[in-house]
Design a protein that fits this description.
The chain has helices spanning 16-25, 41-44, 65-68, 80-104, 110-131, 140-160, 165-193, 198-201, 235-258, 265-286, 295-316, 320-348, 352-356, 371-381, 402-410, 416-423, 426-429, 435-451, and strands at 384-387, 390-393. Helix content is 59%, strand content 2%. It has 18 helices and two strands. It is mainly alpha-helical and 458 residues long.
Length: 458
């Protein structure tokens, strides 16, 4: 258990600590019995039961500098999915900090601001610890391949377990784009470091083209999406929404903050190109959330999602040391969630169980191979495009589709994601010549040319 360093009173302003500690203390200790089939308690842990989970008193949560900077993993020995869990949870915590900062600027209640400041400080320390698990000898492009493996296998997992058909379709649509990004970055890895992407993905995720990045560039209006209804949406939908938005946001931020560090022009251009697609993804995913949720409701769901994901990571983590981190941080987030519940009850007069509307959140988010699922989506949806908040075949797009003109402007002087393929070795480069990939590129080129008579460049 991590103890505070220095004067503990600095964490006890205005009685916030006492309330958070008490909130944890009153969690009922409800044992999970065997069911009629004789299932033991540990089998029940495949589910997440937020109202039965043990928390950690807030005064025990702050970390000292030594504990905040752990020993990084060995990039040559780490399991690919341990790396993806670390990348995911870094993004989840980064989103928690950024969202909390945004809400505190808009929420008028001083008590809310103080509670948020305290929880945010812990989230910040968690984010730094998780991110610092990455080793210094893991290059930018190697980390990037990890980010895209997250995008592929996380999105596939969420899509396969998403109860809302529209949200599922939105996930499937972007899945094929992130799948292609993994391929384009693999070509860059081969070009600049002579690296084999299989060393990073370890055969768990295929490396081949998806919907070509060159045809993914769309007018901002075509990133608009319909949102779920906060009163009827399943809790799993809300968790998936928060998870994928945070993950894509972290990917966008990583590419923007690291792509410029390469001296090679094509590397810099490729990071810029794909970072813009990630911005499109963050926009479309962010719009899936109901804007009618209150700020405190959004905060509570975000903290619940953190606990849910840490529990998911702990249940599937193969590294005992890192598994312990996930388990500890889950307890911290349970306490944060309960404080949000207290604030909602006091300020809005609503009970958190009436918002969650479930005692169990399932299934857990699991990193595992999704090759068959991804290939089935490629076979059925490679030529989809968004129009007026729906998805349709490219051949059915109206001639005045706004993205025709936008795509022509963006690709006017060449496309880095196409140029990088010619710099990769033949084993990777020839994969871009697959018949389905060539066909979808040709179809988009035909539609852009046809649409130019109707749509001026914007």
């Amino acid at each position: 258990m991590t103890r505070m360093v220095g004067n503990p009173r600095i964490f006890q302003g205005a009685g916030v600590t006492a309330r958070l500690t008490a909130c944890t203390a009153v969690l009922p200790e409800i044992p999970v019995p065997m069911d009629s089939a004789g299932v033991m308690e540990e089998d029940k842990m495949a589910q997440f039961r937020p109202f039965e989970m043990e928390g950690m008193p807030i005064e025990e949560q702050p970390m000292n500098w030594k504990d905040m900077v752990p020993m990084p993993y060995d990039k040559k020995a780490v399991d690919a999915y341990t790396r993806t869990r670390i990348i995911l949870m870094n993004g989840i915590e980064n989103n928690a900090v950024l969202t909390s900062h945004a809400i505190e600027r808009m929420h008028p209640d001083p008590e809310v601001k103080k509670s948020m400041a305290l929880m945010r400080r812990i989230d910040s320390q968690q984010q730094e610890l998780v991110n610092w698990l990455n080793p210094a000898d893991q290059s930018i492009i190697e980390t990037t391949l990890g980010y895209e493996q997250v995008a592929v296998d996380l999105t596939a997992n969420l899509a396969q377990n998403e109860p809302d058909p529209y949200v599922k379709q939105t996930l499937d649509f972007a899945l094929l784009e992130d799948f292609d990004h993994l391929y384009r970055y693999s070509c860059l890895y081969d070009y600049i470091e002579g690296g084999d992407p299989e060393v990073i993905v370890q055969g768990k995720t295929e490396v081949k083209p998806g919907r070509p990045t060159s045809i993914e560039h769309r007018h901002p209006f075509d990133s608009m999406r319909k949102h779920y209804d906060k009163d009827t949406a399943d809790i799993k939908t809300k968790m998936n929404y928060i998870t994928i938005t945070a993950a894509e946001q972290q990917t966008m931020l990583y590419y923007r903050s690291h792509g410029f560090m390469y001296p090679d022009d094509i590397a810099r251009q490729l990071y810029a190109e794909i970072a813009e697609i990630e911005e499109q993804h963050v926009t479309q995913y962010g719009l899936l959330g109901d804007p009618n949720e209150t700020m405190l409701e959004k905060l509570a769901m975000m903290e619940l999602n953190e606990a849910y994901l840490y529990h998911s990571c702990a249940e599937t983590e193969s590294d005992p040391r890192i598994k312990g981190i996930w388990e500890k941080f889950m307890k911290m987030e349970v306490t944060h969630f309960n404080e949000c519940a207290r604030l909602i009850k006091k300020i809005e007069g609503r009970d958190i169980q009436d918002l969650v509307k479930a005692d169990v959140i399932e299934p857990l988010v699991v990193f595992e191979q999704n090759k068959d699922y991804v290939n089935s989506v490629i076979d059925g949806q490679l030529d989809l495009a968004p129009n007026n908040m729906e998805f349709m075949r490219m051949r059915d797009l109206p001639d005045d589709w706004a993205s025709f003109g936008y795509l022509r402007v963006m690709n006017a002087k060449g496309v880095p994601s196409e140029e990088i393929v010619s710099k990769a070795g033949p084993n990777l480069a020839e994969r871009d010549q697959a018949e389905n990939i060539r066909r979808v590129k040709q179809e988009m080129a035909r539609r852009v040319e046809k649409g130019m008579a109707a749509v001026p460049a914007r």
